[in-house]
């Protein structure tokens, strides 16, 4: 099991169950395990999921891509394909040592100069591709930021400023990426267009609710259903102040002076196939099995929870309270699991992230004996160095103090002071947020102890 460390001095069995569920959920979506289960090579036949590719039909096999899971995916592909890989490069925040595939640095959540430099190598490899090339595109969460390729007229600093504004606004990932796709050359189907006429196979780890290929990592290998006009609408909806160059580009695009990103039916996608190898439900299914093995009645509420983190927390509290009070929808001891991507509209100057804010809000509202935990599967919630938190009905003593921390978006120091943090370190994967609610039995002891 992935090492999930609780700061709690004397964690209860319910706390340990929450940690076990989270650890096994993350383990289930680690790249080496996912690729081992999904990708195989027998002779010249490369099998990916239910489809196969005859490598004898290609002169070269090239690997490109990036994101938080890219280093592990590259390791796993090298183990499967070995010297059948002719060249490759992936960009990731924590690059390791590669064999056939170069590992290059990028930064998240705000793009950096080193990410721009690394992206140039990917572009070189794509420009060398032809109809006899098989391009294995590694598409994992975080690639939108770590592989910045600013469009003409947009500088890196402009892209950084716009990303900062979007992240603070409370815009969801589809809105954020609608803007980023129209400020980049590889996003929004741009990688597929650059690689054409090569055969492109996307190996996708989804960190997006609903697995929308056009949104995951800003859809480098997928048709883009958004427009320049949609991107402008996002800026206006959230009243964002962005550099003049950004607004000018989007306005020119909306007026038809710039070509749109490739959409469904574009010939560049005729030789593109995408495979979603892992997503949030993959992780939650593993956590459900862990809970059941420990004697709990466990169910997945949804892998698609979204909206403001503090509001989603109230719904999870209500479910825990209903289970404890009425035995509906399941009788305790029970575990409720959910995933997805909540957002935070930043109005204060504090430290935190969506999962930390979720937990603080849950602890403030919780009115029954239960444990609530939430983490970002990449191990770094909202740019902090912690994965998330684990709380219970005793975490908050002063509702006013907790309310003040929420008002200032300052969940991290509040939860740190109460030994409520969860640490994993960078996990090397990313399938979004994972949440666990543990409701103990009638006598206050949970299933593990009975």
TrEMBL record:
Domain MOFRL-associated: 19-251
Keywords per UniProt: Pyruvate
GO cellular component: cytoplasm
Basic and acidic residues composition bias: residue spans: 99-113
Record flagged with keyword Phosphoprotein: no
Domain MOFRL per the UniProt entry, residue ranges: 335-433
InterPro entries referenced in this protein's UniProt entry, alphabetically: GK-like_C_sf (IPR037035), GK_N_sf (IPR038614), MOFRL (IPR007835), MOFRL_assoc_dom (IPR025286), MOFRL_protein (IPR039760)
Region (Disordered), start-end ranges: 92-113
Domain of life: Archaea
GO molecular function: glycerate kinase activity
Family matches, as Pfam families: DUF4147 (PF13660), MOFRL (PF05161)
Protein name: Hydroxypyruvate reductase
Organism from which the protein derives: Halopelagius inordinatus
